[in-house]
């Protein structure tokens, strides 16, 4: 247990290292979600429009 | 040669072509990032000067490289667009700034969290840090131009020209540490006399950078597909 | 790939745009050179004549065996060197973890020319571009 704690403490620099990795992770996840949600929304709209146009594409 | 390329300049075909590449990118990126994280956080050695804080380098430097590389891509696509006038070039270029600005933000925040324990300050106005902050504002400018002139050929032109003007900042960022005295240390990897990083630290950095680069391509390709679909929506709804 | 006439024209135009911006930026940076530099070396500091008590930064290596703490341990006195000139620095406050002999540092404060003492209000550590595990650094030092 104390050994595990030592790894996370990072010789006293744990705060800086873990916050840096935390910020990195959160921002990348948010970016990933934003990109995927945009794609989903657009595909939904496109499907609706194509159906409205009797399946006519191009 | 250009005739042949014309076939691929068709957005719908292009969208289909990048589909498999995109997925390969994602499914290679995720394991690479996971391996990079594990080695970087737990198995790489501490630095002789900085101790454990050197672990921030793996995410800081890889994000910084992506931020710069993304700009070079935007610049080249804009130049191609202005010369050959294929709309696909500028469509692709316009999808990059939003993804790139997140990497720039990560670089600035992780750099600041690295600076406090090593330099003794979160922020200083030295040439490297300031020019990198300017890169963030250039990306912001490109995003706003794209938003302001959505679906307008003037927007395409303004975007391309702004990206060419802003490109002058890229060599300034790269060489700021050599041209002026800065608090930021000089380049360690991409330099004339070879890397000055020990191999045990260079390996996780390279794994991480490759992983993040592939993730970047996945995000850009997905956005390009979305943008192509958006154009189609515009076309279909204008018929009503 | 041969560029057709129209494309060659567009290309030359872009090149002209880019070169003129590069040239303008070059002159602006050249003019601001003094301001962009983050710190002065001790030699540069002695050369500077104007504004004796201006708030500036001086950087270099901490000279070996030059660090002296006051009896109460709050004040510290050390020398910054660029291997040509050295400047005496007085500082009261918290030093960064990386502060040690032969380490690159940047001191922010005012230079008292009469007493030849740099009164620092802040001390920042610089680290170099070399990254290596402690064992390898030890081995390298022993080889010397």
The dominant shape of chain B is: globular
Helix/strand/pairing category of chain C: alpha+beta
Overall strand count of chain B:
0
Biggest sheet record of chain B: none
Give the mean pLDDT of chain B: 91
State the secondary-structure class of chain B: mainly alpha
Any low-confidence stretches of chain B, pLDDT <50, length ≥5? none
Which spans of chain C have pLDDT < 50 for at least 5 consecutive residues?
none
Summarize model confidence as the mean pLDDT of chain C.
85
| Quantity of strands of chain C, as a count | 6
- The sequence of SSEs of chain C as H and E is HHHEEEEEEH
The outline of chain C comes out as flat
How many helical stretches of chain C? 4
How is the quaternary structure best described? heterotrimer
Give the biggest beta sheet of chain C.
5 strands, mixed, barrel
- For the termini of chain C, the CA-CA separation is 55 Å
Radius of gyration based on Cα positions of chain B = 20 Å
Assign the CATH class of the largest domain in chain C: Mainly Beta
Can you characterise this structure?
The complex is a heterotrimer of chains A (58), B (240) and C (144). Chain A has helices at residues 2-9, 14-52. Chain A is an all-alpha fold. Chain A has one domain. With 240 residues, chain B is mostly helical. Chain B has helices at residues 2-8, 11-43, 56-84, 87-94, 96-119, 127-148, 153-166, 169-179, 199-238. The model of chain B has no long low-confidence stretch (mean pLDDT 91). Chain C folds into two domains: 5-33; 37-125, OB fold (Dihydrolipoamide Acetyltransferase, E2P). Chain C has four helices and six strands, in the order αααββββββα. Chain C has helices at 5-31, 33-36, 42-47, 134-143, and strands spanning 55-62, 68-69, 75-81, 86-92, 104-112, 117-125. Chain C has a five-stranded mixed beta barrel with strand order 1-3-4-6-5. Chains in contact: A-B, B-C. Chain A binds chain B through residues 7, 10-11, 13, 16-17, 19-21, 23-24, 27-28, 30-32, 35-36, 38-39, 42-43, 45-46, 49-50, 53, 58, and chain B through 12, 37, 41-42, 46, 51-53, 55-56, 59-60, 63, 99, 102, 105-106, 109-110, 113-114, 116-117, 215, 219, 222-223, 225-226, 229-230, 232-233, 236-237, 239.
């Amino acid at each position: 247990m104390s050994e595990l704690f030592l790894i996370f403490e990072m010789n006293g620099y744990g705060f800086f290292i873990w916050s840096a990795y935390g910020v990195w992770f959160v921002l990348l996840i948010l970016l990933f979600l934003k990109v995927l949600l945009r794609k989903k929304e657009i595909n939904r709209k496109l499907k609706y429009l194509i159906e409205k146009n009797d399946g006519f594409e191009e | 040669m250009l005739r042949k390329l014309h076939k691929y300049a068709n957005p719908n075909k292009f969208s289909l072509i990048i589909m498999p590449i995109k997925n390969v990118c994602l499914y290679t990126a995720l394991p690479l990032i996971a391996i990079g994280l594990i080695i970087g956080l737990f198995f790489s050695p501490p630095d002789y000067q900085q101790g454990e804080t050197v672990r921030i380098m793996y995410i800081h430097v890889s994000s910084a490289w992506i931020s710069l590389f993304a700009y070079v891509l935007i610049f080249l696509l804009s130049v191609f667009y202005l010369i050959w006038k294929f709309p696909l070039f500028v469509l692709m270029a316009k999808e990059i700034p939003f993804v790139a600005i997140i990497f720039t933000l990560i670089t600035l925040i992780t750099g600041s969290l690295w600076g406090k324990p090593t330099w003794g300050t979160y922020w200083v106005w030295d040439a490297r840090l300031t020019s990198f902050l300017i890169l963030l504002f250039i990306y912001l400018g490109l995003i706003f131009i794209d938003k302001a002139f959505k679906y307008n050929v003037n927007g395409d032109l303004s975007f391309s020209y702004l990206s060419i003007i802003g490109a002058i900042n890229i060599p300034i960022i790269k060489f700021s540490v050599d041209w002026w005295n800065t608090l930021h240390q000089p380049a360690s990897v991409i330099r004339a006399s070879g890397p000055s990083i020990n191999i045990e630290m260079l390996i996780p950095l390279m794994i991480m950078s490759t992983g993040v680069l592939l993730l970047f391509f996945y995000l850009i390709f997905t956005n390009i597909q979305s943008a192509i679909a958006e154009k189609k929506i515009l076309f279909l709804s204008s018929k009503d | 790939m041969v560029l057709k006439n129209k494309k060659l024209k567009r290309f030359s135009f872009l090149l002209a745009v880019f070169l003129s911006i590069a040239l303008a930026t070059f002159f602006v940076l050249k003019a601001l050179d003094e301001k962009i530099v983050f710190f002065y070396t001790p030699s540069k500091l002695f050369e500077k004549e104007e504004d004796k008590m201006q708030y500036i930064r001086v950087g270099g290596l901490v000279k070996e065996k030059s660090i002296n703490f006051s009896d109460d341990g709050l004040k510290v006195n050390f020398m910054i060197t660029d291997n040509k000139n050295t400047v005496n620095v007085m500082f009261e406050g918290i030093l960064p973890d990386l502060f040690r002999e032969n380490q690159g540092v940047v001191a922010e404060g005012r230079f008292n020319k009469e007493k030849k003492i740099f009164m620092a209000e802040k001390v920042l550590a610089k680290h170099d571009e070399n990254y290596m595990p402690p064992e390898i650094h030890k081995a390298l030092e022993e080889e010397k």
